[in-house]
Amino acid sequence: MPVPEGSSRGNLKVYLGYAAGVGKTFQMLQDARDAAQQGTDVVVAYFEPHERPDTIAQVRGLNSVPHRTIQYRDRSFEEMDTDAVLRRKPKIALVDELAHTNIPGSERPKRWEDVQVLLEAGIEVWTTMNVQHIESLNDQIWQITGIQVRETVPDWVVRQAAEIVAVDVTPEALLNRLKRGAVYKPEMVEKALAGFFKGSNLGALRELTLRQAAHEVDLRQFAFDETSGFRAPRVSESRLGQVRAEPANERILIHISAAPSTAMLIRRGRRVADYLQADCLALFVHKTSNLADLTAAEREAVEKHLRFARSLRIETQVLVGKDVPQTVVDFARRNQVTQVFVSRSHRRLYERMFWKDYSEAIVRSAHDLQVTVVADRTRRQGF
Amino acid sequence: MSATFKVTNGQAKLPRCAPPGWGLDLRLEEPMPRVSDLPRPSPERLLRQVQAEENKQWGARLKIFLGYAPGVGKSYRMLDEARRRHERGEDVVVGAVQGRHSEEVQKILGKLESIPPLETGGGQAMDVDAILRRGPQICVVDPLAAQNPPGSRNAYRWQDVRDLLRNGVSVLTSVNLLHVEEYKEKVQAITGRDTAETIPKSFLLSADDIVIVDVPTDLCLWRLGAQLTSIGISNYQERQLSELRELALLLTAEVVDAQLESYVQAHGIEPVFGTHERFLICLSPSSNAAAMIESGIRNKERFQGELYVVYVHRDGVSKKDSERFEEYLDLARQAGATTEILESDDPVEAVADYARQKRITQIFVGHGCHYNWRDRLFGDPILRLIRRTEGIDVRVFPH
C-alpha cells in the first residue's frame, strides 16, 4: 500500500479475525518481534493478556509502555496511557483491541480515538479487531448470530488502514483451543460454546471476515492506481472474460426519520455506498420549521440519527416541507441522487401511530429514481 | 429468512371485509421448508459432497494451507501444525517437501520422520506405496501442485494425495494460488508465467479444512526479495500481488460457504444468510430490464456476490414479451447469472418463495407502470412484495 509522499501521519495496520482466540494478537506480536529483531523501534502500547500463556510469551522481550490505572466506582481499571506513548514516540506502537470502550474518566471514550491521536503524531499503529466490530456489519452480525455487538468501530477508521491482515484458523482448531482453555477461563468456556461459538456462527463469521478482507484489499488497489498511475487489467474472479464495468457515478440518499430502524438504514446505506464507491447523503424532512409536531423523544431520536450518520461520514441535511415524501423526492432529483434508501413500513400498530410512514409514498412518487426499501435485519424467532 | 410475522398479530389487523388477496398472510403459518424440500444441490456440489464423504468414510481428512504467492509462509504454518500434532502423539510423516526451505522449516523437519521420494529417470515423485506400507495417521505433502515424472503411479501429485486419503491417511498440504487450474489464465495475465503443475479447483473445494495464510503484500515482496531471481518471476509487483491476494481470500470464502451449507444441511437448521450478497432481478413486462440487469451485474462485481434473474410466467403473457424475456435471460447467463422461469398465478408469492430458497439479500423489481382496479383491490404488487420479504432489501427501479 503506497503512502502519499511527505505524509507525516502514521500508518495503521489491522489484524482482522472472526472471533476471540483465532490468533490476531499472537500474529501481531510475532510480526512485531520480527520487526524488532531488524532494529525497528516497536513498543507494546496496550496489551490484553487474557491469561493466554502462548500470547504472553510473545510479549517478552518487546518494550512496553506501562498502562494507566483509572479508578472507577472503587475499582481500578487499566487503559492505554496515550500521553506516555506520545512522549515515548516509537516508530511502531502495538495497540490490542481497537474496538475497546474506555472506562469513564478516560480522556477519550473509545480506544480507536486514542489510536487516531497516535497516528496524527506520526506513530505507526498495529492493532487487532474482529469482523463483528465493524459498524456497518452490525445488523448482519445480529441477523446471523443473534448477538448484538455493542462495541463498534466506524468503517472509515478501518478504511484508513494501510494494511488489513486476515488472521485465519479453522473453526475446528478454534474450538479445540477453546476447550483446552487457551482462550477463556474454564468457567467462561461453556457460556461461549452455547453463545457466540455455537453451530454455524463461526463458519458464517469466518466467511464474512474473508469477504471483508478481500473487499479491503480490493479498495486499496484503487488507491494504489490513483497514487501511482498504475493501470493493470483487473482480473479478479468475477471480472474474468468481460470488460470491467466502469464505476457508475452513483449517489445514495438515506431518508432519516425518528423510527428506530433508521440506524439500520444508515449502516446499510453506508455499506452499499462503500461497495459501489458512491457518494452518500442523508436527509431529514419535517413539516414545520419549529419542529412543533415532534415530541421530545422524536426530536431526540432524529438528532441521534443525524449525529450517527455524520459519525459515519455521511453528509446530512435538514429540510422543511409540507409534503414530506415529495420533498425527499425533489431533493433527490435536484442532487442527482441515483438511489434513495428508505426503511420498511412499520408493521406494528403502535409504531404506525407514532411514526409517520413515508416509505411507501416515496416508492410511489419516485418513478424516475431507484428506491431501496431496506430489510429489517433483526433476528426473528425460529431462526 | 424465516416466517416473518406471527399470524396471531396479522389476524387482528385484517380489514373487516378482507379481499381474497389478504389470505396470503395466512400462508405464513405453514412450517418452514424442511431440508428435504430445499432445492436439489447442483451436480458440482453433489460431486464435492461425494468426494468429501468418501474421504470421511475412511476417516481421512484433507487440510489445505492456501497462500497467494510464494513467501507468505504456508509451508511454515503447515509444518508447525504437523510438529504440534506430532508432539501431541499423533503419527505424522513427511511425504514430500520443497527443495528449498528456511532454517526454521529445517528445524521442524529434523523432528519429523520423512519418507524418501521415489527416484526415477525423469525426476522425483512422492513414494505413495512406501507411505501406505508405513500407514501413518497424517502425511505432510508440500507442495500439493507437482507433476510426476512419466511412468509414475499418477500424472499429478494431487492424485497421489487422493490415493492417500482413500487409504485412510489424512493429509496436510500447501497450495499456492498460482497453481489452481481455473485461475491459470488470470495468474498468467498477472505474472506472465505459465505453469503445467496445476490442480483442479474442485479438489480444493472438497477439502475438509482450508486455511488461508495471509500477509500484507509488502511483507510478501520483502520475503521474496532474496528469491526473486532464483524462482524466475521477474515481474511481481505489489499491485499484482494484491489481486492474487484478493482472489485467494475469495476462494477461501467460497470453500467456507460450501462447508457452511453442508453443515446447515447435515444439521437440518435454517439456512444462514447474509454472509454474502445475492441479488435477484425480477423481470416483468413493464420493467426496464436492461437497466436492471446492468445494475445487477455491476453490483455482483462490486460485492463479489451472486446474481439470479427470473421472470414469472403467467397465462396471458404475450409471445413477444416472453421472447424478450428469454433474450434478457440469455444476456444475464452470459454475465454469470443463474436464471429461471417461475410458473405461478401470483408473481409476488412466487418471487418471495424463490428469494427465501436462494437466500437472496437484495431483490430488484421495476415500478409497475399503472395501477388497475385489480391492484387497487389486492394492493400494489410492489408494496405487497415489500411486505412479504422483510429480511431482504427491495430495490424498485424506474421503468
What does this entry look like structurally?
In chain A, helix 1 (24-37) runs parallel beside helix 2 (53-59). Helices cover 40% and strands 17% of the residues of chain A. Chain A is an alpha/beta fold. Chain A has a six-stranded parallel sheet with strand order 3-2-6-7-1-8, sandwiched between helices. In chain B, the strands form three sheets. Chain B has a six-stranded parallel sheet with strand order 3-2-6-7-1-8, sandwiched between helices. In chain B, strands 11-10-9-12-13 form a five-stranded parallel sheet, sandwiched between helices. In chain B, strand 10, helix 12 and strand 11 form a beta-alpha-beta unit. In chain B, helix 13 (347-357) runs parallel beside helix 15. The longest helix of chain B is centred in the middle third of the chain and has 29 residues, at 238-266. The radius of gyration of chain B is 27 Å and the shape is elongated. The model of chain B is unreliable at 1-41, 226-236 and 369-373 (pLDDT under 50). The chains are: A alpha/beta (383), B alpha/beta (399). At the A-B interface, helix 5, strand 8, helix 9, helix 10 and helix 14 of A face helix 7, strand 8, helix 9, helix 10 and helix 11 of B. Strand 13 of chain A pairs antiparallel with strand 13 of chain B, so a sheet runs across the interface.
